[in-house]
Amino acid sequence: MSYLSSERANVLMEALPYIQKYSGKTVVVKYGGNAMTSDALRDAVMSDVLLLKLVGINVVLVHGGGPEINAMLKRLGKESKFVDGLRYTDEETIDVVQEVLCGKVNKNLVAALNRRGGKAVGLCGLDGALFEAKVKDARYGLVGEITNVNAQIVTDCINAGYIPVVSTVAQGVDAECSYNINADTAAARLAIALHAEKLILLTDVRGLLMDPKDESTLIPIVNIADVPGLKNKGIITGGMIPKVDCCVEAIRWGVRRSHILDGRIPHSILIETLSDTGIGTMIL
Length: 284
Hints:
Blueprint: H1 3-22, E1 26-31, H2 34-37, H3 39-54, E2 58-63, H4 66-75, E3 82-83, E4 86-87, H5 91-115, E5 120-124, E6 131-135, E7 144-149, H6 152-159, E8 163-167, E9 169-172, E10 178-180, H7 183-193, E11 198-203, E12 221-222, H8 227-232, H9 240-252, E13 257-262, H10 268-274, E14 281-283
Parallel strand pairs: 1-2, 1-11, 2-8, 5-8, 6-9, 11-13, 12-14
Antiparallel strand pairs: 3-4, 6-7, 9-10, 13-14
Helix pairs in contact: 4-5, 7-9
């Protein structure tokens, strides 16, 4: 046997115990950032999701679509506005958000999985009242805070052999409207409702860093008990705060592992899920 063939066999044998461990379990992946805008990275994510499904792992893909929303608003001559890092969403903007997320982005991802031989189905938070929400804060406009997750429609899709692809627009319970929902938050709440084994958030950094300016200072494992101290020290700061908070909430409500992964690394989902190496930051 050649050295290359032996290495390939070792990779497959390394994956075997993880396949056995996670077969029949559910993994929720929040997909966004550079992994969504780069064709090569998007292809890698689609391949990862399909491979996990083929070895018996139930993958639910929750996605955002900020760049596509920005592009559509720009074509309409409307400026994107953000308050505290959240997109200010007026009535015109929520129409664009719903059109882009529930339509173009969602269906393109479904098609990408199906072209590779997968069996994907697109859902949005309005389907089956999957995500119900109330207004989060008037300062943000039609940005919602999830009040309830009705995960049965996602469970039904999984049981029928589909890969659910979920966009994050919610049905209003305090008004007859739709709400824009942060995709990290939606993924965490859905992972809880599905009793998922793992929550994976793809982002544009290596993970949680001791020094945000130095990617060599990755913190590979964080216990949720250590999170308040890391915030006080200024290690968890800025845009990493809501991501870590989502992971902590998921763990507290029964998800066994949460991960913040670098979506710029091709096949980061497979490396984390099916290898001894692991990447990014695991919160447990």
